[in-house]
Write a structure and sequence with these properties.
Strand content: under 5%
Largest sheet: none
Order of helices and strands: HHHHHH
Distance between the termini: 56 Å
Number of strands: 0
Shape: extended
Number of helices: 6
Radius of gyration: 24 Å
C-alpha cells in the first residue's frame, strides 16, 4: 500500500471512527440498564410524545395539502396544534431530565475545586426542583382560573392543554428529585467506602 493510497489516510480513518461511534451512540437504547419500572415510565411518556408529534405533523400536513389541492382549510387545525404542543414539550422536558440529556454548561462547573462540586451540584438540583414546583403551582392556578374556557373551533376546554404544564413540571421536578437522591446515595456510598479503606 503506497503513501498516496487514499484508503490509508489517517484523517479519514479517524473521521470514520467518529462517525461510527456517533451513530452507535445515537441508535443505542437510552434506557439501557435501567430497572423495569423506570424503563416502563420512560416508554409510556415516550409513546405519549410520539403520539403528540405524529398528531401535530398529521394535522399540519392535512391542512396544508387540503388548502393547496382543494382550496379548503380546516378552521380547527391551528387551534388543535396549539393545544397539543404543550404536551409534546412537557414529554420532552420530562424525558430529558430522566435520561440526563438536559442542556447544561459544564465549563464553569469543571473550574470549581473538586471538594466543592458536590455542594454546587446539590444546590443546582434544589434550585431546579424549586423552579419546577413553582412553575407547576402557577400553572395549576392558571388551569383553575381559565381551564374551563372552551376553545373556539375544537370546543375542548383549554384546561386540557394547559394542564400539560402542571403534569410536566411536576414530573420533571420528581425526576430531578430522584436524580438528586441517587447522586446523594452514590456520594455517601463512595465516602463510606473511602472511610472503610482508610
Amino acid at each position: 500500500m503506497s503513501a498516496s493510497d487514499p484508503s490509508s489516510n489517517p484523517i479519514k480513518d479517524i473521521a470514520g471512527q467518529i462517525e461510527h461511534a456517533t451513530r452507535r451512540m445515537e441508535l443505542r437504547d437510552p434506557d439501557e440498564g435501567l430497572p423495569f419500572a423506570d424503563r416502563l415510565v420512560n416508554r409510556v411518556v415516550e409513546i405519549a410524545g410520539v403520539i403528540a408529534l405524529v398528531s401535530i405533523v398529521g394535522i399540519v400536513f392535512s391542512n396544508a395539502s387540503s388548502r393547496y389541492l382543494f382550496g379548503v382549510s380546516f378552521s380547527w387545525a391551528e387551534e388543535m396544534v396549539q393545544m397539543i404542543m404543550p404536551w409534546l414539550a412537557m414529554t420532552g422536558v420530562f424525558l430529558s431530565v430522566r435520561r440526563g440529556t438536559m442542556i447544561r454548561i459544564d465549563f464553569f462547573y469543571e473550574k470549581i475545586p473538586v471538594r466543592y462540586r458536590g455542594i454546587v451540584a446539590n444546590t443546582g438540583y434544589v434550585l431546579n426542583i424549586a423552579v419546577l414546583l413553582a412553575m407547576a403551582w402557577v400553572s395549576l392556578d392558571f388551569v383553575r382560573l381559565f381551564g374551563g374556557d372552551v376553545a373556539l373551533y375544537v370546543q375542548i376546554p383549554t384546561g386540557w392543554s394547559t394542564s400539560a404544564l402542571v403534569f410536566g413540571a411536576l414530573g420533571a421536578a420528581m425526576a430531578y428529585a430522584a436524580e438528586f437522591y441517587k447522586e446523594w446515595r452514590t456520594r455517601n456510598d463512595r465516602d463510606d467506602a473511602g472511610e472503610s479503606i482508610s
